[in-house]
Amino acid sequence: MLVKTIKDMKSIVKKLKEKGKSIGFVPTMGYLHEGHISLIRCSKKDNDVTVVSIFVNPIQFGENEDLDRYPRDIERDLQICRDEGVDFVFYPSADEMYPDGFSTYVEVEGLTNRLCGAFRPGHFKGVTTVVNKLFNILQPDRAYFGEKDYQQLKVIQKMVKDLNMNVEVIGCPVVREKDGLALSSRNKYLSEKERESALSISRALFEGKKMFEKGEKDPQKIISKMKKIISSYPEVKNVQYIEIVDPETLEPKKKVEKGDLIAVAVFVGNTRLIDNIKI
Ligand code: AMP
């Protein structure tokens, strides 16, 4: 069932709570793919009711980013949600979420300065603010986030812990195409040639992991090999970062250990892609 206003959504949630139903929540920006579907399936498994939100959150995009051209197809998304047995789709407008005079933000310090945060000032402030609003509206028992956006997952978990929020934040594994490319709504931007070059990212991540498994502990050696692989593809315009970090603090490692995270952000053509792997 499609719900467009906060008022209607809150009244539905109130009734569900009165009936003692558990609520699982999957926040998305729409243009759904198998990555989103994996989160929906986890939520369906754990909860009485699953709510998916579809909201391209303007305040998490920088000025020169892709807010205006972000892919949208609400009819297709609704069909996927129906097919997956989603109970409610919350689809508010930007004005509904940010009426005139809106001026309150939630910011997680520290973690948000690293990795993507260093290149996208204000991005995580937009994410934590909207997720906080969505949590208040939906009062979910559990919320599902993809490890594809690993830093986002950690930032949300930190917010929930620091602010004593009553929701369990659950991370779900990265879903990939058969050839390794991590699914992303932004893959839609890629031309055929760019799609080929985008494969460099997962190939480099798999190679990085393999090097560690063969005994390499020096992050710089792994990173420089990965950089070489990625840069060898013609459509790769800019390697924003390749880092090996502690999976909790996201601080760079001096010596690589099992459980560390390799994270990458790369521009392929004009499209910024991110991916990561735990080693
Ligand atoms: P988005 O619509 O891109 O904001 O993503 C909504 C949620 O789906 C986020 O929690 C993402 O981490 C998750 N997600 C996106 N792509 C993938 C993927 N390939 N595998 C797993 N989760 C994903």
- Structural class of the secondary structure composition? alpha/beta
What name does CATH use for the topology of the largest domain? Rossmann fold
Number of helices: 9
Biggest sheet: strands, sense, closure?
Answer: 6 strands, parallel
- Physical arrangement of strands within the biggest beta sheet: 1-4-3-2-5-6
Identify the CATH architecture of the largest domain: 3-Layer(aba) Sandwich
Query: What would CATH call the homologous superfamily of the largest domain?
Result: HUPs
Number of domains: 2
Rg of Cα set: 19 Å
What's the β-strand tally? 9
Which ligands does the model contain, each kind named once? adenosine monophosphate
Q: What general outline do the C-alpha atoms trace?
A: globular
> Mean of residue pLDDT?
98
Identify the CATH class of the largest domain: Alpha Beta
Task: Give the CA-CA distance, first to last residue.
Answer: 40 Å
The proportion of strand residues reads 15-25%
Contiguous low-pLDDT stretches (5 residues minimum) are none
Along the chain, the helix and strand elements come as: EHEHEHEHHHEHEHHEEE
- The helix content, as a percent range, equals 25-40%
